[in-house]
Write a structure and sequence with these properties.
- The protein has 831 residues and is an alpha+beta fold.
- The protein has 31 helices and 24 strands.
- The strands form eight sheets. Strands 2-1-3-7 form a four-stranded antiparallel beta sheet, with no helix packed on it. The chain has a four-stranded antiparallel beta sheet with strand order 4-6-5-8. A four-stranded parallel beta sheet has the order 16-19-15-20.
- The N and C termini lie far apart (75 Å).
């Protein structure tokens, strides 16, 4: 193969061969690619690193990139200077066959990239020198690595200037190419390439056409600046190792030694690990550093010292344990280290007058850390089905998890007749979610997506609301008449949260057994409207999540009486974290554990750009098709593989939390598991609808579901593929991370509070004079003794009635008991 798509999975590069021009152009032409390119050309380095990456050189045997087995029949050529690229492009487009041109593109910033056919028997660098000589174009001799990756642009004509179908053809014998590749690898490794001396140095302005190329009768290059002797194997190996070490001793320009030094300053009082703690501290360091070392075991071993006589074998055991830990987002403590280093550089630079120059590497490092954080869950997600995929494309990769969190309750509302077995009990797809983010963090881009999913239901609601308006007009006209028009009970399903408890309860009772749905882009609507009735709101949502009955009785004939057998109500709220704490203000009643919380990425220092992600008409139509088919699916379904996946996740978290005695995290898992199973069912229902549309068309899919009501059950069982089920852990881990991020400290404080439950005698907080009286009394005392002590503490004005009331209070609080002889005894604490 001559073209590979490069992705990073679990911290390692993975290659996939591209075998057709259509697939190549599709990857380059996606909306996400175009958006990232616009950002990159505006100076956003993180967006540039998110561009699609291609490799055209392949890899020699024993390579490190998974998916590359053979060297390709092509190689890449990088031209950074705009003027030089313009001159070279003119020559290349005039005679592409002369140069063996396969692809020519403008780069993301300046200059461009070209791909040429490789002359057999020559290494990548030798071929690059050949082309540079023909074009009389400066070349970067450090860009000859066979793992060289090119950040590509779009498939538009102004970006992709030339593309040959030969780039995707496989016309060589694998055995012969493998043998040739092995020879070339040995030549490159031991410095036996037939090149001038200067070509082996990192030189971005190398001009090979100015060298005098000569060959002797045996075809070996000769000349004043040419090699005339081979580098010995041992010397070459040492040089290669030194070069690799030099290339890997920093993270985006920041030396690892500085990062590690700052780590110990922040988290160990500046002290390096000692014999007593070196195992634990080395493990913690490796767990964090793995995120900026590409999860590379060899690199971690190279940069982490052996502290206090640490045997190499023990150090490697700590590193191996760290690499085996579950992969998470980049740890906050590591980002804090980078931020601290940046502050130091800024202070130093301010005094020297070169703050921007000195902190550039650290700005890039922090940008990279935040970009990895924002895209961590998105990169881990498998390919999403139609509707879900379009929703993500409409808001961008950074908001993938928030938009999934927002649309799953919507999907559950549309598939109102579907029930899924969770731990042996049938559950409706009842979901409550909250999208938390600071102002101007992108929450508003979710609004049109939710609107697209609910468009058909809202059209029906408008018709019902029009009928209600007509009834109100008739009622006003007949207000003085004896006979009043009867109020219609209309099944409006999209309900505003800017409502009273009574009106909302009445609306929920009229949905004809179908799910109601509420969405608010501003959660403060809830916090303000329900301020005095937040307990009612919490109870209603808890019962809606469980699908239990809801009763509301009133004595007045005009008041609302509500009797709902199963309360079905899905709710989505967007707002700031501050508003979240006003909505969820009790951490022991179970409401917090029933709500799915998503976080928008931190865009505080992101450059201002145009709105690159918008909901297109095509995406809206794709969503509408899925939303139209979902109500046709009805019935109960058992998904055994999903159930097993949920149980595996529960056990994994249980074992993790047992190690640290983390009771808060351990309890959160109980409701996160069924919530995730409901969300997964929503996504798999979309997959069923997509499969039917692809096979029968939109109208054909609708016909199939109507003719065969059980068809969706058969199909959803088949969607439990390993790839699809990978999303379970991602969704569940995301919920768990956010629940702990927002609520851990508040939950711990709530459960440890003395007001959480009834306290014993000795747990009681004593603040008044009655408490002083209680302490002065013996374990067993009479009424008269209580009266005497009361007079001693409060004065002579104390009456017998006051003492009797005090004793009644103590008895009600469980502080004292009454003996058969009518004396009193203090209740002893139970141990």
């Amino acid at each position: 193969m001559s073209c590979y798509l490069i992705k990073v999975e679990n911290g390692h590069k993975v290659a996939r061969s591209i075998t057709s021009e259509e697939e190549y152009k599709q990857l380059r032409g996606s909306n996400e690619q175009k958006a990232n390119l616009r950002l990159a050309r505006a100076g956003n380095d993180a967006a540039k690193r998110r561009l699609v990456q291609f490799n055209y050189s392949g890899h020699y045997p024993q390579g490190v990139v998974k998916g590359m087995k053979l060297p390709s029949g092509a190689f890449g050529f990088d031209m950074d200077e705009p003027e030089a690229f313009a001159k070279a492009a003119k020559l290349l487009l005039k005679e592409p066959d002369k140069f063996g041109l396969l692809m020519l593109e403008r780069s993301a910033r300046q200059g461009g990239h070209a791909v040429f056919e490789r002359e057999k028997g020559k290494t990548v660098l030798e071929n690059q020198v050949r082309i540079a000589t023909m074009l009389k174009c400066e070349m970067d001799t450090s860009a000859h690595d066979i793992n060289r990756v090119y950040f590509t642009t779009t498939s538009d004509d102004e970006d992709l200037l030339f593309l040959s179908p030969r780039l995707f053809k496989d016309e060589y014998d694998e055995a012969a190419v493998a043998a040739e590749g092995k020879v070339l690898e040995e030549r490159e490794r031991y410095g036996q390439e037939e090149l001038p001396e200067g070509a082996h140095k990192a030189n971005k302005h190398y001009e090979p056409w100015k060298e005098e190329f000569k060959k002797d009768s045996q075809g070996v290059f000769k000349g004043q600046e040419f090699k005339n002797s081979r580098i010995s194997s041992s010397a070459a190996s040492t040089a290669a190792a030194s070069a690799a070490s030099a290339a890997q001793d920093n993270y985006l320009g920041i030396p690892y030694r500085e990062i590690i030094k700052k780590w110990w300053q922040l988290y160990n009082d500046g002290q390096e690990p000692m014999r007593s703690n070196r195992n634990t501290l080395t493990f913690e360091l490796a767990v964090n550093l793995r995120h900026i070392c590409g999860f590379d075991r060899n690199l971690l071993a190279q940069i982490i010292p052996c502290y206090d006589g640490f045997p190499e074998q023990e150090k490697m055991a700590c590193i191996n344990s760290a690499l085996n830990e579950k992969i998470t987002q980049m740890p906050k403590r590591l980002k804090d280290v980078l931020a601290a280093l940046r502050q130091e550089k800024l202070k130093q630079g301010a005094s020297n007058g070169n703050a921007d120059e000195d902190s550039e590497a650290l700005v890039n490092a922090l940008d990279e850390a935040n970009a990895k954080d924002d895209l961590f869950y998105y990169d881990a997600l498998p390919k999403m089905p139609q509707g879900v995929r379009d929703s993500i494309s409409a808001v961008g990769p950074a908001l993938a998890m928030p938009v999934i969190t927002a649309i799953c309750p919507t999907i559950g509302m549309l598939a109102t007749g579907v029930k899924v077995s969770v731990h042996g009990k049938m559950n409706s797809l009842n979901l409550i979610s909250y999208i938390a983010g600071d102002f101007a963090s992108g929450k508003g881009s979710i609004d049109p997506v939710v609107d697209a999913w609910t468009s058909e239901v809202k059209q029906m609601d408008k018709m019902y609301q029009q009928q209600e308006d007509e009834w109100r007009a008739r009622k006003r006209a007949a207000k003085n008449k004896k006979e009043q028009p009867e109020e219609p009970k209309l099944p409006v399903r999209c309900l505003t949260l800017n409502n009273t408890v009574a009106n909302l309860a009445e609306r929920l009772a009229n949905t004809e057994g179908k799910h109601a749905f509420s969405f608010t882009p501003e959660a403060d609507t809830v916090a303000q409207k329900w301020k005095s009735a937040m307990s009612d709101f919490s109870v209603m949502l808890r019962q809606a999540y469980d699908g239990t009955s809801y009763e509301r009785e009133a004595r007045s004939a005009d008041a609302v009486n509500v009797h709902i057998e199963h309360l079905l109500w899905n709710v989505v709220m967007c707002g700031t974290p501050d508003a979240l704490y006003r909505v969820v203000n009790n951490y022991t009643d179970g409401f917090q554990s029933r709500i799915v919380v998503a976080r928008t990425p931190d865009n505080t220092f992101t450059p201002l750009t145009d709105n690159l992600f918008v909901l297109t008409e095509t995406q809206r139509e794709h969503i509408r098709q899925i939303a139209h088919l979902l109500p046709l699916m009805e019935g109960e379904v058992v998904l055994p593989k999903l159930e097993n996946k949920g149980r595996e996740w529960l056990e994994q978290i249980r074992l993790e939390t047992m190690k640290n005695d983390d009771k808060v995290k351990a309890r959160q898992r109980f409701r996160i598991c069924p919530t995730t199973m409901r969300m997964m069912t929503c996504i798999m229902l979309c997959k069923v609808a997509e499969t039917l549309i692809q096979k029968h068309g939109f109208q054909g899919a609708e016909k199939q579901l109507k003719q065969n009501p059980l068809l969706w059950k058969e199909m959803i069982v088949k969607t439990q593929t390993p790839t699809m089920l990978e999303a379970f852990n991602i969704l569940a881990d995301y919920q768990l991370d956010n629940a702990l991020y927002f609520f851990r400290s508040r939950i711990e404080d709530a459960f440890s509070s003395k007001s959480y439950c009834g306290q014993t005698t000795y747990d009681r907080s004593r603040r008044g004079k009655n408490d002083s009286i209680f302490e002065r009394l013996d374990v067993t005392f009479s009424f008269e003794q209580a009266l005497q002590q009361s007079i001693a503490v409060k004065g002579a004005n104390v009456t017998r009635e006051v003492v009797r009331q005090m004793l009644k209070n103590w008895k009600r609080q469980g502080l004292i008991g009454v003996l058969p002889d009518m004396r009193y005894q203090k209740v002893q604490p139970t141990v």
